[in-house]
Structure formats: structure tokens, C-alpha cells
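Project outcomes to date are best conveyed with an example. Our students and postdoctoral researchers have been running inverse folding experiments weekly, and each run begins with a structure described purely in C-alpha cells. The record below, which covers 349 residues, was selected by the lab manager from last quarter's runs and is presented without edits.
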């Protein structure tokens, strides 16, 4: 980011010719039901100097036409139509075309508070930060989203190492994990792209962005609304509609992301945190594979193939960890594991 950007302040009153360009990348796929609200929440931002890149990832509904309609109405909107390759590849396409000094990204079924980018921009420049971040709300369609509040939210400044700690350790906000509730210096993406085919672009790359920051400015104000519904990429599991093969794909994508996080932490010399992350990844594997409804021998084989050890050994590692939170999670997991596989067998005897 240029020296001029670092010196820019709120006294400019956010006049477009005085503010740097923010490139907003929106991967779009079959989102016609929610897409207009998403795009309008971006075009109506109080921060006006935006480049809005809509990447239509081979939609088969009216999403592509909706994108084109907004491009005709607003010269800041650019549309790319491409063959379907998945959310991560679409996001990468937008990043490759982005011209802004600042980068943002939005999921196609989510929406923003009108002042989100104005507030995050001020956080970025007034604190000479590489990244700024707000809180978000899961939106199910009925929540009160009125953000017109006079409340003052404290600003916190952390470095990349502290960000990684909060990303891995339990007890911190899920906002650290997300990619869409932040503004980034464009330089952070110089050597970072999302993993094509991986549905979990948040967990797959956020550590490589936050971990390279000198300064990160945080606010607890909710400015991003993440829509939760059955069609969303990260929607909750409905056991009545549970598809083992689809679930396994999600699981393997998550596991790849967790493994990359552990590798990155070790490369930064944060070995203790990497060990913690590795145990959390193993915990996730033990729990997620239970949903596959395998018999115990199949289940044990799958866990060992993916994690390199057995479910019981992983649970013992958690319980004997020096981290109290991991001990408690290990105990809970052990109880669930026992009830899932052995209590029915004991009762049948």
C-alpha cells in the first residue's frame, strides 16, 4: 500500500477522488434468490470508490443475468462469466483482475451494513494496519439488523502472531476465521490464492493472510451478515438429508485446510501452537467421521488413514494435553465416541 494511503485520514470526508480504490470480489453461483440484496448492499456503501468484481461461476439460474443488469446500472460493477470450477477458483479469478490497493470479498448470499467499508477503511488507515476486521452475525431471515447505533466500539490492535493464536485457540470469536469481514492491503495477496476445489476458503488461507500482518485493527461492531440456509456452502448438517459422500468431501477439504494451517505455524516457528492445531484437527476427524455411519472397523481404518493414528489414541492425546480446554474437549469426545460405537454392543450382550 502506498505511503499516501497510510497518511489518508477521515478528514477527507471519504471523497472518492481522495480515497484509494477498494476491490470487492464476489464469487457468484446460483444465488438468484439473494444476489440482488448482496450486490445492493455493496453498491450502496458510504465508501464510494469501489471496484465491484462479480465472478459468475457458470451459474445455471438467473444469477448471470442479474450480474449483467447491475453492471449496466453501475459503472463500478464488472462481470466475469466463466465455467464452473468452484468458489475458490472464482475468488482467485476476481483477485487476479483486482486493481485496488485494498481488497475485500463477499459471499453471494450475504450482505453488508451500509457503512462497513467506511468504518473498516478508517480503522485501516488511522491505525496504520495491514488488515481491519469487524464482527459478523449469522442471519436466518428474521433477526434485527439495524446497525444505526450511537454506541462506541473500542478498537484493538494486534499483530500477526496474536491473530494466529486467536485463530487456533478456543474461546475467541469466529470472526478471526472468516475472510469476508475484513479489509486487506492488496500486498497480502501477492503470494496467496485460494485452493481450487476446496469449499472451505476461510480455513484454507486466512492464516496465511493474518499471519503476515504487522498490525491488525479490530472492532466488535457487527457490520457483516452471513446468511444461513440449506443451500449455503457452510450450512448446518441436516441428518435427514445427510449425504455421506458430500459430507466426506467437506471433511477432507476442512482437513486439508487444517493441515495447511499446522504447516504454516511450524514454518513461523510457532511449534506449540502448531501442536495444538494438529490435535484440534485430529479431534475434528474423530467427530466428523462418526457421521459417516461406518461400522467400527471401517471407522477406525478411516481415522488412521487420515490422521496417522487411531481414534482412541487421539482421544487420549487430547485428555492428557496440558491445555485445559483440550482436556475437556477430549473427555466430551471420548464419551460421544464410546456411546456411538460401544454402548449399543454392550447393551446387546
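After processing, the design step wrote out the following sequence:
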Amino acid at each position: 500500500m502506498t505511503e499516501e494511503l497510510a497518511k489518508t485520514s477521515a478528514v477527507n470526508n471519504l471523497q472518492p477522488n481522495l480515497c484509494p480504490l477498494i476491490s470487492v470480489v464476489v464469487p457468484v453461483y446460483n444465488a438468484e434468490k439473494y444476489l440482488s440484496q448482496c450486490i445492493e448492499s455493496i453498491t450502496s456503501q458510504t465508501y464510494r470508490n469501489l471496484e465491484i468484481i462479480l465472478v459468475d461461476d457458470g451459474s445455471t439460474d438467473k444469477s448471470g443475468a442479474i450480474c449483467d443488469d447491475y453492471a449496466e446500472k453501475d459503472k463500478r460493477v464488472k462481470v466475469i462469466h466463466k465455467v464452473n470450477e468452484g468458489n475458490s477458483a472464482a475468488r482467485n479469478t476476481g483477485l487476479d483482475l483486482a486493481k485496488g490497493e485494498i481488497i475485500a470479498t463477499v459471499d453471494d448470499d450475504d450482505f453488508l451494513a451500509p457503512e462497513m467499508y467506511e468504518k473498516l477503511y478508517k480503522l485501516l488507515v488511522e491505525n496504520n494496519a495491514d488488515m481491519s476486521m469487524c464482527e459478523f452475525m449469522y442471519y436466518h431471515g428474521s433477526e434485527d439488523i439495524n446497525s444505526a447505533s450511537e454506541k462506541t466500539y473500542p478498537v484493538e490492535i494486534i499483530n500477526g502472531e496474536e491473530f494466529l493464536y486467536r485463530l487456533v485457540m478456543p474461546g475467541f470469536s469466529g470472526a478471526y476465521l472468516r475472510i469476508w469481514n475484513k479489509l486487506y492491503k492488496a500486498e497480502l495477496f501477492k503470494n496467496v490464492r485460494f485452493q481450487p476445489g476446496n469449499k472451505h476458503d476461510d480455513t484454507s488461507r486466512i492464516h496465511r493472510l493474518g499471519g503476515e500482518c504487522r498490525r491488525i485493527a479490530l472492532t466488535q461492531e457487527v457490520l457483516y451478515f452471513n446468511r444461513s440456509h440449506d443451500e449455503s456452502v457452510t450450512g448446518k448438517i441436516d441428518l435427514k438429508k445427510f449425504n455421506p459422500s458430500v459430507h466426506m468431501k467437506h471433511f477432507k477439504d476442512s482437513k486439508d485446510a487444517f493441515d495447511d494451517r499446522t504447516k504454516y505455524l511450524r514454518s513461523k516457528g510457532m511449534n506449540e501452537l502448531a501442536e495444538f492445531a494438529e490435535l484440534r484437527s485430529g479431534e475434528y476427524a474423530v467427530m466428523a467421521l462418526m457421521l459417516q455411519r461406518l461400522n467400527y472397523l471401517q471407522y477406525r481404518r478411516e481415522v488412521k488413514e487420515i490422521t496417522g493414528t487411531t481414534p482412541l489414541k487421539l482421544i487420549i492425546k487430547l485428555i492428557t494435553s496440558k491445555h485445559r480446554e483440550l482436556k475437556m474437549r477430549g473427555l466430551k469426545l471420548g464419551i460421544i465416541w464410546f456411546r456411538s460405537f460401544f454402548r449399543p454392543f454392550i447393551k446387546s450382550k
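Residues 239-348 form one domain. The radius of gyration is 22 Å. The training component of this project remains on track.
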